[in-house]
Amino acid sequence: MLKLYHTPVSPNSHRVWVTLIEKGLEFELVEVNLTGEQFKPEFLAMNPFHHIPVLVDDDNTIIESLAILDYLEAKYPTPAMLPDNPKDLSTVRMVQLVTVNELLPSASPLFPVMLGLSKGDEEKIKQAKEKVGTIFKFFESLLDERPFFGSETITLADAVAGTVVPWLPRAGVPLTDYSKLNRWCDRILSRPAWEQTKATPEAMEQIKSAMAARMSS
């Protein structure tokens, strides 16, 4: 059986978690407490870079969330979460990579504020919101009359962006100026995979503790 080593609030973990559910796969969840469990020898044996998530499929161990998503799509292709059309495929890949390489780094100053850990540096917060707004505008331009990015059915782009974008209005970046993205976000959050993986208060406290420890070190 598939086994996912994860942390519930991590977007890197969450995108794999919802994809497993969307594909209807059976899997076991193993929660990793990021206050130290990621440095234990048994975890480092799976991932020497001490990051989550890690997916174990029998004798195959995969690290890095985008690699895991590609593995799941290749080995378990039904239902398909990548379009065949080249233009649509490029849209999916752009959303995935912009989320990972642009959105998450740009939004990082907002996360302590969102969790109530810090008011943050006013200038850095302003710059972060501007960068996030630029990305939201780009995502808005990629959405058409179809309900998902580049597809009538949910894709890996939705799994990646859909585990980051919905958090950002809590950090003071509203979606009201991006009508298509706002409707997409509502659509994503109403799906059973997102309902089943909603962060519990305990999970929120765990991530707050881990972030507070990093901020104080």
UniProtKB/TrEMBL annotation:
UniProt xrefs under Gene3D superfamilies: 1.20.1050.10, Glutaredoxin
Tagged with keyword Transferase: yes
Species lineage: Bacteria, Bacillati, Cyanobacteriota, Cyanophyceae, Oscillatoriophycideae
Top-rank taxon: Bacteria
Span of domain GST N-terminal: 1-80
Keyword Lipoprotein among record annotations: no
InterPro entries recorded: Glutathione-S-Trfase_C-like, Glutathione-S-Trfase_C_sf, Glutathione_S-Trfase, Glutathione_S-Trfase_N, GST_C, Thioredoxin-like_sf
One GO MF term: transferase activity
UniProt name for this protein: Glutathione S-transferase domain protein
Domain GST C-terminal: residue ranges: 85-211
